[in-house]
Design goal:
Elements lengths: L17 H21 L5 H12 L5 H8 L3 H13 L3 E5 L7 E5 L1 H22 L3 H23 L1
Antiparallel strand pairs: 1-2
């Protein structure tokens, strides 16, 4: 008598895990983003930081870290590299010198605008999806991430 394989294990069993699908999609995104960002001499985390600052200049390291879901010990070297490249400024807050505020230089704002002028369109094309479908998927994945972060912090 032969055992039949349960449906959950037909094909690649990892394909049954949402976490693996999200992970694999993240790796695929990185492969698509890399050549797009190489022309701007940016890494993906640097790109995200610049885009977040372009939306709101003068954020603190803590505020930006919360938006990017990264700790300050990860962000500090990233910001130092962006500052050395002339794209970012780091200044101590006048009311509380323990707080570091971040700002884009004119060159950083220009580079970010150039990247935003082509990278999102290229990513949309690479997905093969309609913008509305991609937005719906993004909303669902963002809600999933928020729920998981809430679960992990409680």
């Amino acid at each position: 008598m032969t055992k039949s394989v349960p449906p959950a294990y037909e094909g690649n069993p990892l394909d049954q895990f949402l976490c693996f699908s999200v992970y694999a999609a993240g790796l695929a995104f990185n492969r698509v983003y890399k050549p797009l960002l190489d022309r701007f001499d940016l890494t993906y985390p640097q790109y995200l930081a610049l885009v977040a600052l372009r939306g709101q200049d003068g954020q603190t390291v803590k505020e930006l870290g919360a938006k990017l879901h990264l700790e300050s010990n990860t962000l500090t070297p990233l910001f130092k590299r962006l500052e050395a490249a002339g794209l970012l400024t780091r200044t101590r807050d006048k009311q509380d010198e323990r707080v570091v505020r971040l700002g884009l230089t004119p060159a950083g704002a220009k580079l970010t605008d150039e990247a935003l002028g082509c990278v999102p369109t290229s990513i949309l094309e690479a997905t093969g999806m309609e913008a509305s479908d991609l937005k719906s998927l993004n909303d669902k994945v963002a809600a999933l991430g928020a729920a998981l972060r809430n679960t992990a912090s409680s």
